[in-house]
Design a protein that fits this description.
Largest interface: A-B, 54 and 54 residues
CATH superfamily of the largest domain in chain A: Zn peptidases
Shape of chain A: elongated
CATH topology of the largest domain in chain A: Aminopeptidase
Strand content of chain A: 15-25%
Order of helices and strands of chain A: HEEHEEEHEHHHEHEEHEEHEEHEHEH
Oligomer: homodimer
CATH class of the largest domain in chain A: Alpha Beta
Largest sheet of chain A: 9 strands, mixed
Number of helices of chain A: 12
Helix content of chain A: 25-40%
Distance between the termini of chain A: 11 Å
């Protein structure tokens, strides 16, 4: 399969016109810009020879005709506010280009290429709504409960868009041999290490804990140090301890972030009565996540009660890691070797629709470099050369897989 | 001089009706409640036999007739929002009760008792405006520039109140032998240590610095730890270091507070690009304040550039400590010994009008206990017994001073 690079890049540029803002896109789920992009996409899929529809949750799903077996390739076309032009969009258009080339060139007669753009991956209403629906993990109650930050319900948005009432497309493990998702890395590793393709071995698990120190507000001039219950000072010491504990207990792939901190009442002349920090940590291995959570609990136990300050910890979020299919990762790697493209095995530090799909069909992802590691920002970009290289590796991977499965 | 305790307590209760809120008062400067309280006070002063006026900045000033020499006793009657009933008000009514008793009992013929309530000590428009004006430190430009948090100018407030255009009263060092201010402690020391009178040796100096760490916002999942410029992590370590350095470098009277901290953008999944802390520290000795400021500078120098994070420090505020007059402190102490009242030499950790007055006339303050150390809150309170004891010690001090100066 010889992809048409010019067409791929043109399609990317065309899609980026929907909601274009500066060098990025503002294409929040189910806005007029997002809906127009979906309409454009379903037409592109039909032109490419696919049976394509927008389903009841807004997924744009195109199926290859006349095959019993297919790979599924996709990602999402919605964006965060003032997001980048490639995040999600590129993975969908990789699928479109591979499917179109297959259909035009009459290659791989035994293996179809189905293409999908999952709705609301970014969670304007409900993160991963499209892939969860596609895999049967999104109930009617889930849909009813989902709201955006302005309180508009997902049901209302689906009705407005004309998607409500359409059947919801479902994955078919008897048809779908594999799910592939191409994506920008959204981090700096490939660029820094001079690699061209990231072979995603796992999508990291994410946990989030909130630590709250409660002391007593006092006049910061008239209250002697030894009579204070300074929630802020205890939190600072606890956070410094946590940074040390995480550095010791984490794996070489662990990341953690103390991203939000708040002191109340928050005045220079009042001893903080409350101090709170949000701790997020990620790792591809559940046992490492357990170890880091245990470090939080141990540090909290150590500091609880110091200086009359009580400490509570709430474990708010736990998303399990998702291993990618080892055989598929090997196949992508084989494709990179075939072309002598420098590639790196690495976890994905961000969540993706592939996380959901991996529970139902063999799933793999490939990353291409993000310039300066930037994403979720209009500054997000990747060179045309790298974009096309990623598409070629994906096409080669599909061809290799067809050969492996006797479907070429 | 035998004070009338019942009258003193009644006057306190009457004054607390102006702007009464729950068990405290809402008597922000130049509100109708504050103005009504000033009008009540000027009438009380006249009833007590003083020549009393409200001056051009709102100071209520009552002078003893027929004397060339007087002590000045006072404080302020404005409050913070939902403040306590004693903060300031008590010191003014101590002066009123001592002056009234002197005038009624025809004691101390050679030493008058002038009484003053300084305007806007709490800084609704301009902190210490009344005492600064009284001492000639508040210029017309200062008045013109002063605004409250809603943007209303002090000039407008003074005009509305009918004070604008009145002459501004001025301190007279040839008349004023001393300035005395009685005040609640606003802290827990007297209560905790079982003392009844705080002999204020100095009003602490206050300095305030803002430390700003600047790094880079990155995705907290996809950016490996070693490639981050985490302003938050650096600030946490710097703050922990500062807490240690202050504990080592401070005097036994030093206090410090890290009361406000902010991380930007402040999301659990974004590495903080900016982290800022407000550091406030107080001590009665300038050389200790210099030492603590040097510790900040040294810690900033140590952490600057770590993990690619740059650090800036801005020294925002520096109020010099004010020593109280040693001879006057001795005189108050002598009064407490005379009555066998347990008293403690201590600095004032909060600012007071006495800070300004001390630059022009011998000045001293006495504290009485605050229940639970509470102030700037409706919960602020002191037992009637302790209030009356403080007034008695002040009256005795005036009598002792008169004797010392041959004016009794």
């Amino acid at each position: 399969m010889q992809l048409n690079h010019t067409r791929l890049l043109n399609n990317l540029t065309q899609l980026a016109q929907f909601g274009k803002v500066e060098t990025g896109v503002n294409r929040l789920s189910f806005t007029s810009e997002d809906r127009a992009a979906r309409q454009w996409l379903v037409e592109q899929m039909r032109e490419a020879g696919l049976d394509a529809e927008i389903d009841g949750i807004g997924n744009v799903y195109g199926r290859t005709r006349g095959v019993d077996t297919a790979v599924l390739i996709g990602s999402h076309t919605d964006s965060v506010p003032k997001g980048g032009w490639l995040d999600g969009a590129m993975g969908v258009l990789y699928g479109l280009e591979v499917a179109r080339t297959r259909n035009e060139s009459n290659t791989l007669p035994g293996l179809g290429v189905d293409v999908i753009s999952f709705a609301d991956e970014e969670g304007t209403y409900r993160a991963l709504a499209g892939s969860l629906s596609f895999c049967g993990e999104l109930s009617d109650v889930d849909i009813k409960d989902a709201k955006n930050m302005h309180g508009v319900s997902l049901t209302h948005a689906l009705t407005e868009a004309g998607y409500a009432g359409q059947p919801r497309a479902r994955i078919d493990p008897s048809r779908h041999l594999a799910y592939f998702e191409g994506h920008i890395e959204q981090g700096p590793r490939l660029e820094v290490e001079g690699q061209k393709i990231g072979l995603v071995t796992a999508i990291v698990g994410i946990r989030r804990s909130r630590i709250t120190c409660t002391g007593q507000a006092d006049h910061a001039g008239t209250t002697p140090m030894h009579l204070r219950k300074d929630a802020g000072a205890v939190l600072i010491r606890l956070c410094a301890e946590l940074l040390n504990r995480f550095a010791n207990a984490g794996s070489e792939l662990s990341v953690w972030n103390l991203g939000h901190i708040v002191f109340e009442p928050g005045a220079g002349n009042v001893v903080p009565s409350l101090a709170q920090v949000l701790v997020e940590f990620r790792d591809p291995r559940p046992e490492v996540l357990d170890r880091l959570e245990a470090e939080i609990n141990a540090a909290v136990a150590e500091f609880h009660g110091q200086q009359g300050v009580s400490i509570e910890v709430a474990h708010l979020l736990s998303i399990a890691p998702a291993d990618m299919d080892a055989a598929l990762v090997d196949t992508i790697e084989a494709a990179t070797r075939q072309q002598a493209v420098p590639a790196l095995r690495m976890p994905s530090g961000a969540g993706h629709d592939a996380m959901v799909l991996s529970r139902y069909v063999p799933t793999a992802m490939l990353f291409i470099p993000s310039i300066g590691g930037r994403s979720h920002d209009v500054a997000e970009d990747t060179s045309a050369e790298d974009i096309c290289l990623g598409a070629d590796i994906l096409a080669d991977t599909v061809a290799l897989l067809a050969r492996q499965k006797g479907l070429a």
